[in-house]
Amino acid sequence: MRLTVSDITIDLGTKPAKRVLDSVSFEAHDREFLSLLGASGAGKSTLLKIIAGILVQDGGSVSFDGRAIDGVASHKRNVGYVFQDMRLFPNMNVEENVAFPCKMRGMKKPARLDRARELLSHVQLDGFGKREVSSLSGGQQQRVALARALAATPQVLLLDEPFSGLDEHLRDDMRSLVLKLHREFGMTTIMVTHDAIEAIEMSDRIVYLSGGRVEQQGMPDELFEHPATSEIAACFGGCSTIAGAVEGGVFSAGPLSLPAQGVRCGSATAVIRQNAAFIDEGMPPVFSVRCCVYRGSTHLVRIDLGDQTLTVPSSSPISAGCLVGVAFDEAGVFVYPGRGGDDGDR
Ligand SMILES: Nc1ncnc2c1ncn2[C@@H]1O[C@H](COP(=O)(O)OP(=O)(O)OP(=O)(O)O)[C@@H](O)[C@H]1O
């Protein structure tokens, strides 16, 4: 199923209403795994609800295989939805929860319970059908929610931060399970996440939302290697974001100078990935060490840039107050015009 989102706009709230999505457009190809990535409040969940038909947009259109579905009720869209808070029915046991979408479609009880058991097996919960949902762990409940979303064989699966309530090792298991089910069932999948590493690990493509607008869309390596804005460059973590100024193709902030060809003169923001900065004895020792933090396999040297900090990894500890030289790998250094959120194209 090809999913097309065209020019979706919505205002929410009153006095005053707030523009939550502004002309959002993207396409998910048949069987694609696409992530909607962005910071909290970017509008990701709102967009998912519009695709599901839970919210109605003020402008624009959603199409499945080229047919607009804007007037189609939520339960007739053939969409599976896993909510962040799962929303399992507490008055039903596990298999009744999973079978519920089939019941809504008029499937007879024995058939829908068979279907529920089959899906529980897919999510590795064989034998859990008669249990109360409250007796399951968070990870097990999340798997029940996933099985329920798949029960009515949806052509589009919508996942809203499906791993956010789980601890790290369970999250890894769930990511693998979701990718396995995506391969087996072959439905087009849209996942909301604010975790950029999760998005690049799992997705065929990523749509990055900020302030209700699409800032960039592309393959994971395109966003990682050529981030369109400082926010996208910084979302992968492990970086220093430094405010400074560009003059004559060079970015400066105190002793820090970086090449910035093609960036217009004036205030600017540099995002420097930690693995793109190195302590280098061959470089002029112009950077003053504020402190050094032990991180197991490495030490993180915090360099004083006035009220800002540049973080550089080091194989050995360096004392506060020392002056060091730093070299940079340009592939991990990004300079944008403007400050923070107001930057434009590089
Ligand atoms: N019913 C509503 N009335 C007013 N404002 C709303 C409503 N629903 C959402 N918003 C606002 O819309 C913006 C986007 O919300 P949304 O939940 O879509 O963001 P998100 O990117 O999914 O964030 P999160 O990751 O925190 O869930 C937020 O500023 C939120 O406060």
UniProtKB/TrEMBL annotation:
Keyword Cell membrane set for record: yes
SUPFAM superfamilies tied to this protein: P-loop containing nucleoside triphosphate hydrolases
Residues covered by the ABC transporter domain: 3-236
Coiled-coil region(s): none
Keywords attached to this entry: ATP-binding, Cell membrane, Ion transport, Iron, Iron transport, Membrane, Nucleotide-binding, Transport
Entry keyword annotation includes Nucleotide-binding: yes
Alphabetized GO MF terms: ATP binding
Gene3D superfamilies from the UniProt entry: P-loop containing nucleotide triphosphate hydrolases
Designated name of the protein: Sulfate/thiosulfate import ATP-binding protein CysA
The encoding gene: cysA
